[in-house]
Structures are given as structure tokens and as C-alpha cells.
Specification:
This protein has 218 residues and is mainly α. The protein folds into 2 domains: 113 residues; 73 residues, no CATH class. The protein contains 11 helices and 4 strands; from the N terminus they run H-H-H-H-H-H-H-H-H-H-H-E-E-E-E. Strand 3 and strand 4 form a beta hairpin. Helix 5 runs antiparallel to helix 6 and helix 6 packs antiparallel against helix 8. The C terminus is likely disordered.
């Protein structure tokens, strides 16, 4: 039997909601990341719309910021980015995939500005954006956006892609774009996206799944 001082869910629940609330307020003083997490959880109780508003506010703040994130602040910053990404996918996505799709586009579009003001020598921040690109492809499969509108989004984004995220998106979104749309801008889509033709079908490069296994494109 676990001791009463062991940190586990049962022992903490025994403190009661009011005591736990007081402790959380005390613990999160001076911890911006923890406060943002609590706000997302509170927003989740109010509904998906409130979560989306909190995410938009945070993404806008990140986009506006010009302060440099050095190696000391890198891990906290990467954790904050990943918290927003997870909130988009896990809290907004299940009930409103269309809004989640819009938010994940906004998230991926932050990459250039973030890299330019961040010491990411370990690649931790980059890995968050790579995962977000996979999330965008998965959400697109759920939303099934109009192919021409999706192509316009990619064409608008490509000139600002200084760090090579969008070729992976082109290859991942190719089956949703369709051959007819892709052939309207062959130099952009076929060359930069690394696409291949198999008869009349489009194929995309192999994707690595979260468990490390590989899923070949079809």
C-alpha cells in the first residue's frame, strides 16, 4: 500500500478540490508555462471554442515576439510549443477538425520566425514543427479540404519556407490535391514535393509513424 506522502493521483485527490486549487495557484506563481497549461484546461471545460481562442492568443504572441531564446530557455520554449500543438490536436481536433486544421496551419507558419530567434542546436524545437507537419496532414485527411483552396494555401506558404518544411507537406497532401491540381504548378509541386507517378496514381514518400514504424505512401 502506498504511503500517504507518495505523489500519486489517489493521495492528491484526498486533499480535496479546494486545497488542490490553492496549491496549483501557489505552485504556478512565476511559471508562465504552467499557467498557460491551466488556462487551456479551464478553457477545455468551457468548450472547444474557448480552447481555440486561448491557442490563437498564444500563437499570435509567439508570432509577435522578437526576444531571443537561448539554450537555457530552449527546453521550456519547446515544451510550450508542443503544448499548443497537443492542444490543437487533442482538444480541438476531435470535436472540430476544421478549426484544428486552421490552427495547425497557423502553428506551422510560425517556424521561420521561431528558428530565427532561437538556439535550436539540439533540434528539439525543430522536432515539434516536424510533428506538427504530420498533424497537419492527418487533419487534412479528416477535413478533406477543397483541393484548389488547399493548393492556394501551399502556394502562398512556399515562398516563406526557409527551413524546408513544406516539401514534406506537399508530398503528404498530394493525394488530397489530386493530379489535375498538381499539374497546374508542376515545378513547385512535383519537384519540391518529391512526388512520384505510378501510372495515373500519385505516391508520396514513406512517412515515419509515432511508434517508429514506416508507412509507405499510396
Amino acid at each position: 500500500m502506498a504511503r500517504k506522502t507518495t505523489l500519486n493521483a489517489d493521495n492528491l485527490a484526498a486533499l480535496g478540490a479546494e486545497r488542490l486549487a490553492d496549491l496549483l495557484i501557489e505552485i504556478t506563481k512565476g511559471n508562465a508555462g504552467a499557467k498557460r497549461r491551466l488556462r487551456l484546461e479551464l478553457a477545455g471545460e468551457a468548450g472547444t471554442g474557448d480552447v481555440a481562442r486561448e491557442i490563437r492568443k498564444r500563437l499570435s504572441a509567439i508570432a509577435r515576439s522578437r526576444s531571443f531564446v537561448d539554450w537555457q530557455g530552449r527546453n521550456a520554449f519547446a515544451a510550450d510549443l508542443d503544448m499548443q500543438r497537443q492542444a490543437i490536436v487533442g482538444q480541438v481536433g476531435p470535436s472540430n477538425p476544421s478549426v484544428a486544421f486552421e490552427l495547425i496551419w497557423r502553428f506551422v507558419a510560425l517556424a521561420n520566425g521561431v528558428y530565427e530567434r532561437c538556439d535550436d542546436s539540439t533540434g528539439r524545437v525543430q522536432s515539434v514543427f516536424h510533428t506538427a507537419c504530420e498533424d497537419l496532414i492527418d487533419l487534412a485527411e479528416a477535413v478533406e479540404p477543397y483541393p484548389i483552396a488547399l493548393a492556394d494555401q501551399l502556394l502562398t506558404a512556399l515562398p516563406d519556407d526557409d527551413y524546408g518544411h513544406y516539401p514534406a507537406l506537399i508530398s503528404g497532401l498530394a493525394p488530397m490535391l489530386g493530379t489535375e491540381v498538381l499539374q497546374k504548378s508542376p515545378n513547385v509541386f512535383w519537384r519540391r514535393g518529391g512526388l512520384k507517378r505510378r501510372g495515373r496514381r500519385l505516391t508520396r514518400p514513406t512517412r515515419r509513424m509515432p511508434d517508429g514504424s514506416l508507412m509507405s505512401g499510396k
